[in-house]
Specification:
Strand content of chain A: 5-15%
Structural class of chain B: mainly alpha
Distance between the termini of chain A: 105 Å
Number of helices of chain B: 10
Largest interface: A-B, 35 and 48 residues
Radius of gyration of chain A: 44 Å
Strand order of the largest sheet of chain A: 1-2
Helix content of chain A: 40-55%
Oligomer: heterodimer
Strand content of chain B: under 5%
Helix content of chain B: over 70%
Order of helices and strands of chain A: HHHHHHHEEHEEEE
Structural class of chain A: mainly alpha
Number of strands of chain A: 6
């Protein structure tokens, strides 16, 4: 037995947990190695000091004080005998459904939510032709009832509805308030989605009114 | 309910810890008092040695028994009561050490090194001419400080083993660690403690 092996057995020797052979081997080593013998004696003296520390005296009335405080405390209910394995498939299924749902929404989110978002914006409605304009030859599209500002829009939807009506090429020739419908963007799941394409009849968003 | 200071009837005294705990679960306060009477010394001693703070140890020991009463229905009848009790005590002592570390940084590694140095100096240079009693008390205080300077996870295992005398397996259950880890921690704690107390041991002329 060398010194390293010997010192590895100090703790077990103190605890009297060595086999007979180990004990005899260690004691034989001690006999020929004063250094290891000294190290072990220091350890033993240290543990004697630790073990001989006086017991701390208990403050009187500890049981009464503990009981008084415990009475005031709310008792913890019985531990529920939960079969945790039973919850694992339920939790896993719920997580799978949530992930699947999120994935479906992510994939279809560019179409379906946009139409829903449009329905939620009542202030901008489809433009309609207003009769009796100051310039009958150049019809002006005004906003439908419910919108406070007139709207002049050049686009396929209005033209389709009005058939032969042609809009002026220049907004400056309208001689009336013009409302620009900006192409609004919505932010869903961290991505910007246009709520309208450039066609006026599908336009939704904030209005900016310019008076000429 | 009879007053707490009434003498405990013989049947209560003769009951095992586990049977008493069964009665405590049914709100038998006399059984609870008997359990406190049986273990208050060991619990107070444990927390006092782990924290090296006599003032705080009374409050913490009281809190241990309050927890026992509050969680009385969580005690599993087949398990050993003392293991369950000292698990609570060890956890509360651990929490208290960590609370102190957070609040005052008393037990940071640097502070530990300083404390070790201080205690070593005091141990190595005792005042000459002091009476034997004073020397013994000084030595005990120094040992207490040296124990308190051992890192928490080693300290708890050391106190449970070398002061309270629990078996390695029980300590493993209390601390929630395998038996091999318990042995490793205790061996390391003993080696640390020996290093810290080396000056006084050599001055004493030991071996």
């Amino acid at each position: 037995m060398n010194c390293c092996q010997s010192r590895g057995l100090f703790g077990a020797y103190w605890d009297d947990e060595l086999t007979q052979a180990e004990r005899e081997g260690l004691e034989a080593h001690f006999a020929g190695c004063p250094s290891c013998r000294g190290e072990y004696d220091e350890l033993a003296r240290t543990l004697e000091l630790v073990g001989s520390l006086p017991r701390v005296e208990v403050a009187p009335g500890l049981d009464e004080r503990a009981l008084a405080k415990a009475r005031r405390a709310v008792p913890v209910p019985d531990r529920i005998p939960v079969a945790t394995s039973r919850w694992i498939p339920i939790t896993a299924t719920a997580a799978l459904l949530a992930i699947s749902g999120a994935t479906v929404i992510q994939w279809t989110g560019t179409l379906a939510p946009r139409s829903a978002a449009r329905q939620e914006m009542p202030s901008v409605q489809e433009p309609m032709l207003v009769e009796g304009s100051s310039r009958p030859t150049e019809p002006v599209l005004r906003a439908a009832p419910g919108t406070s500002e007139p709207v002049a829009v050049a686009g396929r939807g209005a033209a389709d509805r009005q058939g032969q009506v042609a809009l002026s090429d220049s907004l400056w020739e309208q001689g009336d308030d013009v409302e620009f419908i900006l192409d609004a963007m919505t932010l869903r799941k961290g991505r910007a989605h246009p709520t309208s394409r450039l066609t006026p009849h599908r336009a939704r968003g904030e209005r900016a009114v310019i008076t000429f | 309910m009879p007053p707490d200071h009434d003498p405990v009837p013989a049947p209560i005294v003769s009951l095992s810890d586990e049977d008493l705990m069964g009665r405590v679960a049914e709100q038998d306060e006399r059984a609870f008092s008997e359990l406190v009477r049986r273990y208050q010394g060991r619990v107070t001693n444990l927390v006092s040695r782990v924290l090296n703070d006599r003032e705080c140890s009374d409050d913490l020991a009281q809190e241990v028994f309050v927890r026992v009463y509050i969680h009385r229905r969580n005690y599993r009848r087949g398990s050993k009561f003392s293991t369950w009790l000292f698990t609570i005590a060890a956890n509360l002592a651990k929490n208290e050490i960590r609370r102190r570390v957070r609040r005052r940084n008393w037990f940071s590694l640097d502070a530990l090194q300083e404390m070790v140095s201080d205690s070593a100096i005091q141990l190595a240079d005792p005042t000459e001419g002091q009476e034997q009693t004073l020397q013994r008390e000084q030595l005990q205080r120094a040992v207490g400080r040296a124990i308190a300077s051992v890192p928490e996870k080693y300290r708890l295992a050391l106190v449970l083993r070398d002061i309270e005398g629990f078996a390695y397996e029980e300590i493993g259950q209390m601390l929630g660690i395998p038996g091999g880890t318990v042995r490793s921690r205790i061996n390391r704690a003993r080696a640390m403690l020996k290093r810290k107390l080396q000056p006084v041991l050599r001055q004493e002329g030991t071996p």
